[in-house]
Queue: 2 jobs
Job 1
Amino acid sequence: MKKMRLGLSMRYHGYHVAAWRHPDYVPGCNVDFRSYRDIARAAEAEKLDMIFFADGVAVRGTDQPEGALSHDMRNAELEPLTLLAALAGSTDHIGLVATASTTYNEPFHIARKYASLDHISGGRAGWNVVTSWSDQEALNFNRTENLPREARYGRAAEFVEVVKGLWNSWDADAFTHDKASGQFYDPDKLHVLDHRGPHFQVRGPLNSCRTPQGRPLIVQAGASNQGRDIAAEHADVVYSVSQTVEEARAFYADLKARAAEFGRLDNAPLIMPGITIYTGATQAEAQARFDELQALIDPLAGLNILYTFCGDLSGHDLDGPLPEHLFEGRITIGSGLLAKAKAENLTIRQLYESAAAGFTGRYIIGTAETVVDDLQHWFETGAADGFNICPPILPQGMADMSRFILPELRRRGLFRTDYEGATLRQNLGLG
Amino acid sequence: MKKMRLGLSMRYHGYHVAAWRHPDYVPGCNVDFRSYRDIARAAEAEKLDMIFFADGVAVRGTDQPEGALSHDMRNAELEPLTLLAALAGSTDHIGLVATASTTYNEPFHIARKYASLDHISGGRAGWNVVTSWSDQEALNFNRTENLPREARYGRAAEFVEVVKGLWNSWDADAFTHDKASGQFYDPDKLHVLDHRGPHFQVRGPLNSCRTPQGRPLIVQAGASNQGRDIAAEHADVVYSVSQTVEEARAFYADLKARAAEFGRLDNAPLIMPGITIYTGATQAEAQARFDELQALIDPLAGLNILYTFCGDLSGHDLDGPLPEHLFEGRITIGSGLLAKAKAENLTIRQLYESAAAGFTGRYIIGTAETVVDDLQHWFETGAADGFNICPPILPQGMADMSRFILPELRRRGLFRTDYEGATLRQNLGLG
């Protein structure tokens, strides 16, 4: 029976905007390596496929409503690749996926760092490719504003080509280590890339051997047309953000069809929508956990979430509707959120409460049975190959997975009882 | 009594060019995390101040004599910051210093990654600032040749200013975590850098808290006039490359005087010349270890070392003198090596054998008593605050330190018996 893929998203120690105000949240855990290590080990004990860190290279939104930023937890974090390398030394099986931007990096560095993570972890590294959307990030890298979307994706496509090329610098058996003759490697098994394109001129070779997985996995999350093409051609895993099963099925079908056009005959890329789960022994208990966090949402922090998508709404009645102009023109990010606001006729407060519950992603409140019914439905009707679990608060969210969700998934035969392979690629069934 | 500072340089698993051909060298250990981990733990068990990784962002010398590169071990390695992060999770006390180039990086990334390493390691991170000297590196980053020295150092000086500014983004007590009021941090304790200089425009703030050491340590190795000024103003530790005690004393006095001009009243920066030690229970045993490795030097690999400094010498008689033109004009790298060749009237083979023994650095052959006499002389006559040990081969070189050198240093009261503080800064006595 086909198994569901499961990842755990660990950024900020929780995906509920008010997680840090919960009585059980330990102040400072979001920059405490040992806390991340313990959660990673708990996820590995449950045989999850991977842990994942989203990322941005700025404190975003430093120009939002007065005081909002200081009420938001998203200011202090650890750089995810550095953190994952440290976690590589503290775990043995679980996949390690970190985000890095193609807009603000150089392909040689990215190829080398992820190759190193793949070596260090014994074949468990994955790179989540993003193009970065905020102007705040541009301001940290000699620019006054972000690149336009087309330019970002043009650069991203070439960036990924270069990185994959560098990962092919050496054949697996290139290093002969022939002590007698003095030959360290076979020159016929070295491939100098010599890439010359519009954005990058990179000679290579990479100063690192071929990695245990052949190359680190590539993960992609962009839902735009260009993002889908990059994912279809290159990605091993796609993190999607669908809010409804219909939307998810359409995305799934589209992406697999595009992948087939690129000649990919396996089931890759695997599609793993994000989901935030509120659960408990009873529906009432699950609802109480949800309500407890919702009651802790600071209106300033709520408006700060919406700021990215809607601009400054602090002058508006929180219990009134969203300004009409938000629904006009081309929406580039947060479109799912705005569609929901329109469809359900939400007030500003209702919208930020809805967004806060899963940092703009999908969330579900229910017992193990209810939640697993939902996941199984998505999994078995062509909407998902698995899920990227974005817990509302950590480590509690992982403990809830262990206590409620994973036993029920296993009871139904939907999730593994042990790792099948030695590498992330093998565990994901990607050959 | 003042204690000597000791670091262990671990690149390539050994600083002798033929290390990998030694019967005891395990093929592939240079990309094996566990092997580095075991050596780091051995160094920590001996209370060494730090481990260190040099670095370059290319396979250097891809245009040297036919076949030479494939006989050189310096092709395959792990990216040092990624490796050190993994080692941070496997050690508790020892300092972790990795090299990163100011010519091929962006200050925001460097500030953030080293801050993260400092958090993860509990205050043990150091950044070795280099400007990169090879054209091969330029070819991996959209350039056809390296920047001229002046331009590199101008960029480096501003780069370090920006990184230090970003590390000051947050006061130590900025994060209030006030669950009741919803205030995550005190906005008065956030400092937006807003740097606008000739090379960099970086707004900040850094999306990471102030680190356990206040900021990661800064290490510098440049011996040029501009390099010395950067070191004098900013560095906590300087890795020098002096070949003689007289040269070392002059460098030491000059650098401490420059530091005083920058208003630095403590003993910083600490100056730690590199040294490769061949030792044993007797002088004959030490000499035999040296001879064994020297006998393994492949002429192609020997010429490849010299290639960087002398160009292609493969058409010359190896047992004849160096071409005269090498001693003309401005020498920018390897000047100590060429000076030695001239002073001692060395043949090409003698020069590469001399260079091979310590990858162009100083080396010494002797019993514990002889070696420690030498180190003590440097330490007590104003030539060094300690040493950066570049072992000929690992892990054997670290085992020799434990067996011979460290007991003798401790017998004379020159080296610690336990760590004094919790952070690298404290252990180095830098307050």
Note: Residues 35 and 318 of chain B are 36 Å apart (CA to CA).
Job 2
Amino acid sequence: MRVVQKYGGSSVADAEAIKRVAKRVVATKQQGHDVVVVISAMGDTTDELMDLALRVSPQPPPRELDMLLTAGERMSAALLAMAIADQGMHARSLTGSQAGIITTGTHGNARIIDITPGRITKALDEDHIVIVAGFQGVAQDTKDVTTLGRGASDTTAVALAASLGADYCEIYTDVDGIYTADPRIVPSAQRIPEISYEEMLEMAACGAKILHLRCVEYARRERVPVHVRSSFSHLPGTWVRDRVPVDPSDPQEGGMVEQAIISGVAHETKEAKITIVGVPDQIGEAARIFEAVAATDINIDMIVQNVSAVQTSRTDISFTLPKTDGATAIAVLNALQESIGFTDLLYDDQIGKVSVVGVGMRSHPGVTAKFFSALAAANVNIGMISTSEIRISVVVGQDDVARAVAAAHTAFGLDATEQAVVYAGTGR
Amino acid sequence: MRVVQKYGGSSVADAEAIKRVAKRVVATKQQGHDVVVVISAMGDTTDELMDLALRVSPQPPPRELDMLLTAGERMSAALLAMAIADQGMHARSLTGSQAGIITTGTHGNARIIDITPGRITKALDEDHIVIVAGFQGVAQDTKDVTTLGRGASDTTAVALAASLGADYCEIYTDVDGIYTADPRIVPSAQRIPEISYEEMLEMAACGAKILHLRCVEYARRERVPVHVRSSFSHLPGTWVRDRVPVDPSDPQEGGMVEQAIISGVAHETKEAKITIVGVPDQIGEAARIFEAVAATDINIDMIVQNVSAVQTSRTDISFTLPKTDGATAIAVLNALQESIGFTDLLYDDQIGKVSVVGVGMRSHPGVTAKFFSALAAANVNIGMISTSEIRISVVVGQDDVARAVAAAHTAFGLDATEQAVVYAGTGR
């Protein structure tokens, strides 16, 4: 088997932690696997380097910032290679550039456009464990060093797994998998043993922080099975992969065939809502508004437009966006008030988004009704609604978020005491 | 003009120091020069990284150690580029590999074998200040990252100056030049305004620590003028270059035409002396001894063989070597005692070496006599003697070193109060 393992910064926080990771890597190699390891910078290294940069320059040039920050993964990669060598195995560390991770030239947020893993496969052929510095690559045009954006070592790992034809990719982190809800809000939340790419994508987009959105997109596109698990235990974590159809004739799966309708409940509280009141109900007005906002690179999430009031020919448009972009969006829209002729602008950052996600809702009607009545029973008022084929999201008041998450979690039978609701085909 | 500047670790110890260096670099650029900067790692970074490596593995593989340590210069290079950009000038940092510094594959102690500075000249053509990470390169065969050995950023700077056809190379450090003797031993020691490559080479080989031996060799071979000066002042330092012949008709140099016979007095106390007593005086015995020692990679310095005592046909051979290699050499020689048939082996690590260096001794007879009588007057006993065309070295007891240095310094008129003894052609 060929395995790619990724260890995050908390797994390599100091020399002792690096030695622990080395043991785990060596154990995998001793099982006879080819092992490629993608590594993040140690603990707070990236933040410390960023602080140092800001002490030298308030606005460091992105090219130079990439040059600086990539030193972090380079150091942890070399140290892990040393720790593995100290346990008697051959190891070779490679920078993103040496590993053939070719990216766009957008410093600080580059995208992988190709992987030429010649040096990796050569080292594997020579029976080496290969350690690749995560989060970094080399720009195709300029040959300058790039970074893929914070947390993107996961993406490096999945992309390498795809390029190397690995059997699976293990993402080691400081939690033991993906949960049905945030355990800090729902103490009865359970680890999800297996989840499909599509569900994981919706969960990640709706606030589940364990896996980076771009990493899940990559895994889905390339069909790379991903195992999210804890580097502090040997327990199984969460498998993200194509869901295996349940075989009802398998006695092992007897009594476990009930597929959960909902895989998990995600939430986030980092968005704000803007409502544009009294927009003339004419073709093209909405386009003008969102073009203006889009021009500022603001990432709009949900959009709702009310039915126009016939007597006034005016409508209200609401949308959500990151709170950090609120001021910019308000300024852009205020500048447009006269030309568009809307009557008012409302801003609300005391909101939260609660989402239920599950492929089961494709085949189970009534999920929306069940979700909304659970919210009603918990006395939660719904502000906005948005849905996909496998997700229902609602915007609620910020103070209602925890209550809404818990109510949905219970309503869909996800609480840990209900033993029947586990996935079929788990336990591997 | 095209200038290469090198700043050592103490010049970039923290964010404030980096900003100070940036100001100096920008000022040079504003004078209209092309500027390439070679930078060391910040302060104690290299030592800290080495400590970290040893906490992970007692014997880190050299390839991985190079991967780790090179992060230090990468960080300081990026930070300096940021600080320069913050002062409104374009700057681009390059790793040794990006700068085209091609080396042998000897990790930890690689040698530069070629420089392909295409990315540097391109950046200079685009009016950028170029910052190159010192001390590092890329192995020609494996494309792995290499280091040139401790203190070798000076060599990087001189090699780049030669390759780029720079007019001169400035080495910024925490002292203001090369002194006629170590000022801690001889308080009246003076800064040497100008010194030839050959003299500097002898000084460096005999214990003057400011410039790396390999850097001086490179500068001499490529005829690169080197200016060693302090990054904490704007005073002139020491120029290492081909000595300009004095023009006696130049009135500016009237009264200063007396060339010093001796440029400086160097010393070191890191060597030990081994004496092999009663070696059979036959052809090939000395060769066998030194072949055996050389096979262990020990760097032998001075060798003295006494005239053989006719009645015994036996001779004594003494040599000096680094104290750190003493035990190895003794073990090797003990193993040879029977086959060679020498009678005894003596080891003395309480010695020191004192050298007087100066091209003036070529044309001035009597330098040896003057040196030895100064030592005799200071009651210093001479153990071994070795000479080159422009150097006389003696081995003395360790406790006599300071007294011997001071006596020679005074005897050759180098003390600061003697105004007449300064170099002709200085003051630039």
Note: The first strand of chain B starts at residue 2 and ends at 7.
